[in-house]
Structure formats: structure tokens, C-alpha cells
């Protein structure tokens, strides 16, 4: 099942994409009877849909695939080309990144392999949708881009290493970075956090 977020930035909702149609996840959950079984779940929020159990996810997918595109008239279904897609997770609690994470990159940059994971973070206001404009910083001198893989943890876990390889959702994203916002001074890891809109899906 492919989940998306859609709508204005101030009121993004979770949708289920089937082909060229996006079905409102909350409306699908209502049609599936999940609103009664999972009363504490807000089906309009992508992170809560992801955190639901496998039974609910399978039922959502089945119902969404069975809904006819004719439901576009009542708002349950939306044509993909008529919606504004947001980032897969519009408001994550945290974005943790791993730098210098493969040998070829270290070799290309002429850097030694790190003895421990090189972790850094990004701010949530750097997230934008796949077709939104990227606003380059005013002090921009050097811009770079890359394509990577983002992993969304689908179950709450803390100090539980059993979650490795399980209960995760993957999404593609690319990052646009500015290396000289502060003229090359200051903390290089904070510079890597990127300004607003520079972390598109």
C-alpha cells in the first residue's frame, strides 16, 4: 500500500494512492469500520496510519482498491494530478541522518572511514513535497543535491534492537544542500541541517 500526504501545508491529510487516484485514508477507514475499532487513531494523520497494526493496514488497502474512481464526486477519491502532494511524513518527531555511510563515498571524499556512526539531524521545516519549489538561501554560493533512501520506523521503539529490519516503511527522498551559508565557518554538521524547503521527498 502506498501512503501519501496531500493538501495545503496547514492541513495535510493522509491518502492512499491506487494508480492515478488518491483515496482519503480517514474516509476509507470509516468505510472499513476501523473508526469504531480504533477510536484513538486519527486516520487523517499519516504517522498514525503507519503506526496502526497489520490487520488495519491490510483492511485499508483492500477497501481502497475496491473503491471505484467514481467516488471522486463525493470527495473520498481525488485525481492524483489534482492534489498537492506533501512529504510522506509531514511532521516527523525527528529526522536522524547518517553521514559518510558507505566506503565509496569516503574514498571519493578522501576521508578516513569513521570509527563510529556519524549522526546528524535535520529540521522538519526543511521538508517539502515532490513537486514543491526549492527555495535556495539568499547567501547561496554552492548548491549540491543527492538522492538517498529514507526509512520511517512504523512502530514505537526505544532501546529495542529487535526492530532492525522489521516494522519499517521506506520512501525515496532527495536532499539539496548549501555548503556555504555561513561562509564556511561554524559547525559543519549544523550547516548540513539545511535551510527551509531543502529536503524534498
Give the percentage of residues in beta strands: 25-35%
The quaternary structure here is single chain
Number of individual domains: 2
CATH superfamily of the largest domain: Fumarylacetoacetase-like, C-terminal domain
Q: Report the major sheet.
A: 4 strands, antiparallel
Query: How would the global form be characterised?
Result: globular
* Secondary structure: helix percent: 10-25%
H-E order:
EEEHHHHEEHEEEEHE
Total helices: the number is 6
CATH topology of the largest domain: Fumarylacetoacetate hydrolase, domain 2
Question: How are the strands of the largest sheet arranged?
Answer: 1-2-3-4
Task: Report the mean per-residue pLDDT as an integer.
Answer: 76
How many angstroms separate the termini? 18 Å
User: How many β-strands, per DSSP?
Assistant: 10
CATH-level-2 architecture of the largest domain:
Alpha-Beta Complex
Flag low-confidence runs.
163-170, 178-187
Task: Explain what you see.
- This protein is 20% helix and 27% strand.
- With 201 residues, it is of the alpha+beta class.
- The chain has two domains: 2-82, no CATH class; 95-200, Alpha-Beta Complex (Fumarylacetoacetate hydrolase, domain 2).
- The strands form four sheets. A four-stranded antiparallel β-sheet has the order 1-2-3-4.
- A hairpin with a 2-residue loop joins strand 2 and strand 3 (21-24).
- Helix 1 packs across helix 4 (54-66).
- It is globular and about 55 Å long.
- The chain starts with a strand and ends with a strand.
Amino acid at each position: 500500500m502506498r501512503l501519501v500526504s496531500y493538501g495545503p501545508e496547514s492541513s495535510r491529510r493522509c491518502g492512499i494512492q491506487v494508480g492515478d487516484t488518491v483515496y482519503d485514508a480517514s474516509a476509507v477507514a470509516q468505510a472499513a469500520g476501523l473508526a469504531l475499532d480504533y477510536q484513538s487513531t486519527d486516520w487523517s494523520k499519516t504517522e498514525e496510519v503507519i503506526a496502526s497494526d497489520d490487520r488495519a493496514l491490510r483492511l485499508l488497502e483492500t477497501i481502497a482498491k475496491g473503491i471505484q474512481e467514481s467516488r471522486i464526486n463525493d470527495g473520498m477519491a481525488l485525481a492524483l494530478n489534482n492534489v498537492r502532494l506533501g512529504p510522506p511524513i509531514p511532521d516527523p518527531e525527528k529526522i536522524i541522518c547518517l553521514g559518510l555511510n558507505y566506503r565509496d563515498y569516503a574514498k571519493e571524499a578522501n576521508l578516513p572511514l569513521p570509527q563510529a556512526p556519524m549522526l546528524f539531524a535535520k529540521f522538519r521545516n526543511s521538508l517539502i513535497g515532490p513537486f514543491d519549489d526549492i527555495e535556495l538561501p539568499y547567501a547561496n554560493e554552492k548548491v549540491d543535491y543527492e538522492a538517498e533512501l529514507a526509512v520511517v520506523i512504523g512502530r514505537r521503539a526505544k532501546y529495542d534492537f529487535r526492530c532492525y529490519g522489521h516494522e519499517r516503511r521506506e520512501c525515496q527522498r532527495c536532499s539539496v544542500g548549501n555548503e556555504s551559508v555561513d561562509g564556511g565557518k561554524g559547525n559543519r554538521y549544523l550547516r548540513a541541517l539545511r535551510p527551509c524547503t531543502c529536503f524534498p521527498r
